[in-house]
Amino acid sequence: KLSVIVNHNRIYFYLLHLDDYNRCPTTRPFRCPGRRTICISIQYLCDGAPDCPDGYDENSKLCTAAKRPPVEETANFLQTLLANHGPNYLEKLFGSKARDALAPLGGVEKVAVALSESDTIEDFGKILNLMRSDLEHLRHVFMAVETGDLSMLRALGFRDSELADVKLFLDKLVSTGFMN
């Protein structure tokens, strides 16, 4: 059964059966955390007005992640680079802590989550405990990509066949305020 409540000109849907506890209708796929199942439309995420009882739908990490490529896409992108170039390849991008398939940084998944949730490159560096020199190197890579200078990516060993994908991925991060 579905219960509907209108509050602040927004419609909230409460699923009442236990077997429906974790499911939300496709038209309101975002489930607020908590015991009670509250489902909201994606359009209400990060709109400046809290719709979840705890305001989770306005959480800054959630809102940053909503603008970024999904964690799965980011993890697949990083994993593909590692598979094509070897486990220490991303050391050229993220610094010496990125050895052994990003293991010292917590692995591909942790790096992917940090790229998705970090408001800025500074936050990203703090989450992964990057050395200042590695963070500055990463900043230079992003700035080169932002200005269209792909020579730095070539110098890092990216193949010409990969340049467009790498540039597109890094541009997505830049366009969501990662460099601010």
Structure, described:
- This protein is an alpha+beta fold and 180 residues long.
- Residues 1-6 and 13-19 have low confidence and may be disordered.
- The chain has 2 domains: 2-58, Low-density Lipoprotein Receptor; 67-175, no CATH class.
- The radius of gyration is 20 Å and the shape is elongated.
- It contains 9 helices and 4 strands.
- It has a 4-stranded antiparallel β-sheet with strand order 1-2-4-3, with no helix packed on it.
Strand order of the largest sheet: 1-2-4-3
Termini separation = 46 Å
Low-confidence segments: 1-6, 13-19
The total tally of domains equals: 2
Helix content: 40-55%
Class by SSE composition: alpha+beta
Order of helices and strands: EEEEHHHHHHHHH
Proportion of residues in β-strands: 5-15%
Shape: elongated
SS element count, helices: 9
Q: Give the beta-strand count.
A: 4
The radius of gyration is: 20 Å
Task: Provide mean pLDDT, rounded.
Answer: 84
- Tell me about the biggest sheet? 4 strands, antiparallel
Protein name: IDLSRF-like peptide
Pfam families: Ldl_recept_a (PF00057)
Keywords: Disulfide bond
InterPro entries: IDLSRF-like_peptide (IPR053103), LDL_receptor-like_sf (IPR036055), LDrepeatLR_classA_rpt (IPR002172)
